[in-house]
Amino acid sequence: MPISPGGTFFSNLLTASLLLVGHICGAETHHVGEGFGLASIKQAIHASAKGDTILVHGGFYKEGNIILDKSVSLIGLDMPVLDGQKKFEVLSIKADSVLVSGFKVQFSGRASLDDPGGIKVYDSKYVRIIGNHLYDNFFGIYLQYSQHCVVKDNIIEAFGREEQEIGNGIHCWKCEDLQIIANTITGHRDGIYFEFVYRSIAWRNISSDNIRYGLHFMFSNDDAYITNIFRRNGAGVAVMFTKNVKMYNNTFIDNWGDAATGLLLKEISDSYLFNNRFVRNTSGIFMEGTNRIRIEKNIFKGNGWGMKIQASCSASDILHNNFIGNTFDIGTNGSLVLNTFDGNFWDKYEGYDLNKDKVGDVPYRPLSVFSVIVEQNPPAMLLYRSFIVTLLDRSERLIPTLTPDNFIDNIPRMNALPL
Amino acid sequence: MFNKIQKFIFSDILKNRIVLAYTLLLAILSWSVFSIEDDGNKGVLTLLNIILLTTPLVSIIFTAIYLYNSSEFIELLLSQPIKRGKIWTGLFLGLFSSLAVAFIIGAGVPIMFFVQGSIGLILIGSGVMITGIFVSLGFLCTILTRDKARGIGISILLWLFFSLLFDGLVLFLLFQFADYPIEKVMVGVSALNPIDLARIFIILQLDVSAMLGYTGAIFKDFFGTGFGAIIGFVLMCLWAVIPFMVSRRMFIHKDL
Predict the structure, then answer these.
(1) How many Å apart are CA A405 and CA A400, to the nearest integer?
(2) How far from each other are the two terminal CA atoms of chain A, in whole angstroms?
(3) Could you read off the pLDDT of A103-127 as tens digits, one per residue?
(4) Gap from A46 CA to chain B (nearest CA, Å)
């Protein structure tokens, strides 16, 4: 929206006060926009010095690749549009302590060699990207070799159809100490992607309807994921080759499809999952090669498989969770069990509690014989819901022969935990 | 004359206490399933199990008992100038239509009430098909032997075979040939059992089909298409028609 020259009394006042503040601090404020002296953002960056503020007024800026190589604050008023014409990387940040806020960044170029992004941060520290709207870019926000950056309150949307035709929503590579907060990401390849990212946090993000994973991270130690929502992503969330991960209060919902899992844990060690919700996923958690992880007080509800725990997992504790309305609570591919399952609530439990201590007196075996059969012989899934399967499961419950002996919850709860 | 036999049997069976009880049973089961399960899709799955168990059993055994009990009536009809084939067809249509009506009233109404979209119609359609198939098998059982106990025994065995033993055989085959790519063969094998055919066909319509994995995908490739659906329908029809035609042929040539 172009603002007429002169403006109103109030905008003059605002400008004046900003100028005043600028003068006091020794930093200047530059205005960009029709009738504001500078017509292009590039000119303003060229004219500015470290610590300056560039205010970009509403309008349409088609300037190719804007390189922000000075420590300035770039602030959009009335959501100015930065357009990459599907040819250029829109905004490249190559300086520390930059603030980018209030822009609509759209139509970045598409290239798989140099991965252009809507906003891309190169080797910088203390960059803040706050409150922008990224629309139909190849990569949304891309950070590489950067530290102490904040990506907050951004709306990132794209309309990818094939994995190879689109990049990730928030892509972080070789970064440290990032804060990814309250962003909304849809339609990218992976919603949030971490690779070699350490000591970082993703908090209150909503990642939905992405083609591959809602969240994908590899080789990223000491990170925390708190209160995020991952919904209807092609294959859920994947966490691989990482140690010391904390996942609290996240919701994994409606990740439903042939190859989808709510949460895929592969080669994870020393991690902690607490109070997450897994609802209506083909499998809630798929675990492979995990060591020493603790899964506590989570809800597994209405999944195909609550958890699939491969025999390669060891020393993992699955404690005090609620398993409600899953087709199979647990699936596994072998007879080796090196994990413990204690104090969970299983809605399929049929035991009794004579001494009224709210713990079932009979141990519960969460592994149904049909899930064992299916794991050994996937086509047997054809017999799903057939009479013989019900019969087999019943008889196995009474006299376990095929299921591993130690796959057992010794203290099953009678009532669901109030989570 | 043909219509009269059919009409007579139809009204006779509708007044039958067992059929009334069957209707009532289906109605109670369906209504309670849908009021317990808040999710319509899950209700369909639960109901599917019940329908695939009770409908074949009731259809085949009721048919056998009814045919044995009305042997005198059939002999009386044979003394009239009516063709044997017409009598047998009339009996079949009468039995099938009355049991189908019982099913539609008992289970169809609640399904229509609670399940949106085409799944409900498919569920009702396959219930009716299953009824037809097992009535037809009942005709075959009764014509095979004159002895009532043996005939009913055979029909119970047939029901047991299709709803339990066949799946056991399938499981056995799956493990015997686990090293071979037998997914496509399984499409053919499942066609040999109408109950399996109906069950898989309905599961493929539901979300849970994702759990069927690779095999499910092959089934979906086949039965999910219009062509596959038509093949499935034709197979079910064949299951209803062939046993009946065989029994009709035997009835025509039989020395009563």
Answers:
(1) 8
(2) 48
(3) 999 999 988 788 899 999 999 999 9
(4) 56
Which residues have a Cβ under 8 Å from the Cβ of B221 and sit 6 or more positions away? B228
| Residue B109, domain extent | 2-253
Q: What is the mean pLDDT of residues A174-188?
A: 96
Which among B168, B216, B219 has CB closest to A388? B168
* Structural domains counted in chain B: 1
Token pair belonging to A70: 């000075």
For chain A, what are the domain ranges? 19-343, 368-403
CA distances, B246 to each of A374, B140, B188, B242, B249 (Å): 39, 7, 23, 6, 5
Q: Which residue of B has its CA nearest to A374?
A: B212
* Token output for B121: 């119609």
Classified by CATH at the fold level, domain A19-343 comes out as Pectate Lyase C-like (2.160.20)
Cα–Cα distance, B189 to B185 (Å, whole number): 6
A382–B211 C-beta distance less than 8 A: no
Of A256, A377, A381, the CB nearest to B216: A381
Instruction: Report how many Cβ contacts below 8 Å link chain A to chain B.
Output: 77
Task: Considering only the beta carbons, identify the residue of A257, A380, A387 that sits closest to B210.
Answer: A257
Q: Which residue of B has its CA nearest to A260?
A: B210
- CB contact under 8 Å between A385 and B49, yes or no, is yes
* Cα separation values, A58 from A1, A31, A36, A92, Å: 5, 11, 11, 20
The reply to whether residue B174 touches residue A256, judged by beta carbons under 8 angstroms, is no
Q: What is the rounded CA–CA span in Å between residue B36 and residue A326?
A: 16
CB within 8 Å of A192: residues ≥ 6 apart: A168, A169, A170, A172, A180, A183, A185, A202, A205, A207, A214, A215, A216, A217
pTM over 0.90: no
Quote the pLDDT of residue B212.
Answer: 74
